[in-house]
Amino acid sequence: MSFSFFKPSRPKTPQEVVKAIRDSLMALDTKTVVEVKALEKALEEVEKNFSSLRGILSGDGETEPNADQAVQLALEFCKEDVVSLVIHKLHILGWETRKDLLHCWSILLKQKVGDTYCCVQYFEEHFELLDSLVVCYDNKEIALHCGSMLRECIKFPSLAKYILESACFELFFKFVELPNFDVASDAFSTFKDLLTKHDSVVSEFLTSHYTEFFDVYERLLTSSNYVTRRQSLKLLSDFLLEPPNSHIMKKFILEVRYLKVIMTLLKDSSKNIQISAFHIFKIFVANPNKPQEVKIILARNHEKLLELLHDLSPGSEDDQFEEEKELIIEEIQKLSGLKNLER
């Protein structure tokens, strides 16, 4: 005789899982602050549904994740506009729900049907959602979550390109100097990814927006904040010295304005900043096609520059650094001996 009165529950289909998530997110709209208990219950339902989603996408210890189900979940997420819902409800969601969401986010973005990434295509049809993620840096409660979601999106060239070209990109120059250190650091990580992940996208952007970009980037290089100066100088080397950006670098080193900025950083109180500045300064000096204005600045300041360079050391034995430094010193000495530089 069997005493089993309960049949094992049937696993939910991807459609049912996504519908449950969508319905629980939509239910948050009907709750008010006055209905605290109702809101708490609704948030618990959302948390339970995202925990189920994570189990399906990553396995739950007993069952392995199913690749076909993952694709179907991504398709349903887009079809039911849950991607949009999640972004707009992020500020309401609890910590555990956000944690599960971040885990699932990267998995969902990677799902493909043929050659098409389902969620990426969805973003390409709703680019404004990327703007929504960017402005979340103004909300410190969800800034780090949005930053993680953004960096996953930026792994795809079309989404990175949109952000670079959008009006919201300029907000990063504010976000990287926010008073909250964790948020500012996270914003800089996203900013760095935008300028280094996709060489051809970045090269095209810098070519089209050279003047506007470096006008605002100069503010970071001359910031009173040590961390901002150091990070932005290092990042400048990272993207300026990439081969696809060689034409940008050649244009940059012709400008006296930026030579003066780098020379100022060369005498910064921080040894780390001095060393980073040297690696850009040497390109100005070694350029065989230096314009007259650059030669004049180097000649006028040759004594101070030579003094700085003689004292400059990375702090450990670095033969290549010393060789480069000697070459730069020689070049500056040659310039100091030139007559009638000013026409």
Automatic annotation (TrEMBL):
Positions the record marks as coiled coil are: none
Q: Which Gene3D superfamilies does this one have?
A: Leucine-rich Repeat Variant (1.25.10.10)
Organism's domain of life?
Answer: Eukaryota
Identify its protein family. Answer: Belongs to the Mo25 family.
| Protein's recorded name | Mo25 family protein
